[in-house]
Amino acid sequence: MYEFIRGKIHSMLPGTVILEAAGVGYRIQVPLSTSGKLKGGEALLLVHHTINAEQGEEKLFGFLTDRERDLFRALITVKGIGPATAITVMCAADPDDIIRLVAAADVAALKKFKGIGPKTAERMVTELRDDFSKWTVGGTTASVRSAKIPGAKGNDAVLALLSLGYPQSKSEAAVAKAAAKLGEKASTEEIVRQALQLV
Question: What is the pTM of this model?
């Protein structure tokens, strides 16, 4: 339903961000790997929307990178791991560490996470090991996020590429390269045109 929400950080606690967008305040649960990097001002969070029909409850989970959201979505496919447990695991360890533990079939370490028992840890390894072993530790998404995307024009250019259907990570990488090539005086339209040649 939601792909991302961009807005002003209204308030923030460890694990939770209130993001104001178009006059609406969204309560978004985030892993510490995300909240620790938010410094106030404006933010763009990739989101995952869940609905618990039995409890009549909706929740939003937010992430700074495709990699974090992909990890979250992979975790909740495992029987016994719901969104709350997945976020708890992601708050307890760096995403790359979680990927390493699963790829290495380290059940002993996995079951130390709150909410993860021996059987669930074994299912994590059985169901996710093959996929996680193909994930590059310290992969491209994290490095893309550290690329400097200049201010509002850069963010607008990223949103323009997202609206055209390009992935978040590729959009940000292309915009960062385009902005670096064109310089600070480039308009949003010029950045988008240049970025389109790079995605």
Answer: 0.67
